[in-house]
Amino acid sequence: MDFETVFMIPVPLWDGTGPYKHVPFQFSLHIIDEQGAEPRHVEFLSDGVSDPRIEFIENLLSSLQPDACILVWNKTFERLRLQELAAAFPEKSGTIRQIILNIRDLMAPFQNMSIYHSKFNGSHSIKNVLPVLVPELNHSDLAISSGDVAADSWLQMIRTESEDEKETLKSQLKDYCCLDTFGMIKIMEKMWNSVI
């Protein structure tokens, strides 16, 4: 699971949000329904017409099984966003809290150096780990290659009047967020294959 948020906004765009607060507008999930099954991709990208949070959380909750094991890269980020959504939408807080309890951090063995490679350059960022373990996947090959650029691109997407630009940015945002979750699956496969 991976979230993208917009956060460098001094004047809030939506009621219930504050200056410089993270507002989630996109998620990507690669779901493996049973061991050995091919992952299926589920994604959400807000059109920005209204506060993206409610559509975001409704789509996320309808996409996840309550007992699913959820892998993220840097659980602190996704967990904080979910806690904020639980506070904003108390009627959904019970289900959101269950999701939080099911989150596992795929970054942890890289962060604590249980898994290390000199080509990580001392970093445990997925952008450093992924191209070392899975050379055919690399964020630098994408038009959007970081969360900051994704946030700026989404703001540009919701503000532009050009349908062509909107569609291009939408596609680039989806490619970026998708790579994070697909990359986690490929990293998990490498980890699994190295222990058997």
- Tell me the number of helical segments per DSSP (H or I, 4 or more residues long): 7
Output the strand order for the largest sheet. 1-2-3
Helix/strand-derived class?
alpha+beta
Mean pLDDT: 94
Summarize the biggest pleated sheet: 3 strands, antiparallel
Total number of distinct structural domains: 1
Structure description:
The protein has helices at 52-63, 75-88, 93-101, 108-111, 126-133, 147-159, 163-195; strands spanning 2-6, 23-31, 40-45, 70-72, 103-105. The protein has 196 residues and is an alpha+beta fold. The protein has one domain (2-195). The chain has a three-stranded antiparallel β-sheet with strand order 1-2-3, with helices on both faces. It has a two-stranded parallel ribbon with strand order 4-5. Helix 2 runs antiparallel to helix 3 (93-101), helix 5 (126-133) packs across helix 7 (163-195) and helix 6 (147-159) runs antiparallel to helix 7.
